[in-house]
Amino acid sequence: MNVISTAAARRKVLPGFGITMGYSVLYLSLIVLLPLSALLFNSTGLSWAKFWDIATDPRVLASYRVSIGTAAAAALANAFFGLLMAWVLVRYEFPGKRIFDALIDLPFALPTAVAGVSLTALYSQNGWIGSLFEPYGFKIAFTPLGITLALMFIGIPFVVRTVQPVLEDLERDMEEAAATLGAGRGRIFLRIILPEVFPALLTGFALAFARGIGEYGSVVFISGNMPMRTEIAPLLIMSKLEQFDYAGATAVALLLLLISFLMLLVINLLQRWARKTSR
């Protein structure tokens, strides 16, 4: 009797599951599944031989190496600095904290093309920072390093905003108990704090990495667009579309989609393992 009343109470508290679920599936289908199915439909006109020739073209492979390599490097850097920024915002009080907190969301609101132009002007040979390294023959803009910096700029909010709520909800009793038992700060961080934050940190890394692979506006200016060196995969897709090579653009986009999906799948498996380990 109690089980029946509990189930009835749950139905009353959360009504309309069928309708809300139907709207959710419909929205997901229209926004996500339908565009992806259109990409797969456009690729059906390609034979496996032609698809393989496009996918293994040296220029296409080089663009994948640049996109994935720089996105991974930027996501790793953002995982470290994002955790540091989130820690400062949660654990310390200082003048201008609200302004500092608001500036983290600036890449969300700033158009990516504006960010690309600004970063190029800053890190180019005549820029404020680039001119300091120019006498030593060290270039930042129009190199993979410049692309990585641009992806770090647009990806840092994903890590900070993912880790920050977890740090805010983290109880300090265990930290204080470990400190009273003689544990050092490094051991407390590695044994108590990091296992709790690690799943959220992986989530922020995955979001920053996924954004970096498909980023176009902020990278197209600072990359220099040199084939085999600094050409990214989204730019190669745009180039093929401008040449009316729709089959080639579809093949490159489909392969990039598969690579992104596999990497996100691996990261999600690591997140599940991290949650089980922390529990």
What report would you give on this structure?
The protein is mainly α. Helices cover 78% and strands 0% of the residues. The chain has helices at residues 2-13, 17-42, 48-55, 58-91, 97-104, 106-109, 112-123, 130-133, 144-169, 173-180, 185-214, 217-220, 233-242, 246-278. α10 packs antiparallel against α11. The longest helix has 34 residues, at 58-91. It is globular and about 65 Å long.
What are the salient characteristics of this protein?
279 residues; globular
Distance between the ends: 33 Å
Mean pLDDT: 82
What overall geometry do the principal axes of the alpha carbons give? globular
Q: Can you tell me the residue ranges where pLDDT is under 50 for at least 5 consecutive residues?
A: none
For the largest beta-sheet, the strand count, sense and barrel status come to:
none
Task: Give a count of the beta strands, DSSP E runs of length 2 or more.
Answer: 0
What share of the residues does DSSP label as strand, in percent?
A: under 5%
Structural topology:
Layout lengths: L1 H12 L3 H26 L5 H8 L2 H34 L5 H8 L1 H4 L2 H12 L6 H4 L10 H26 L3 H8 L4 H30 L2 H4 L12 H10 L3 H33 L1
Brief sketch in words of this structure:
This protein is an all-alpha fold. Helix content is 78%, strand content 0%. It has helices at 2-13, 17-42, 48-55, 58-91, 97-104, 106-109, 112-123, 130-133, 144-169, 173-180, 185-214, 217-220, 233-242, 246-278.
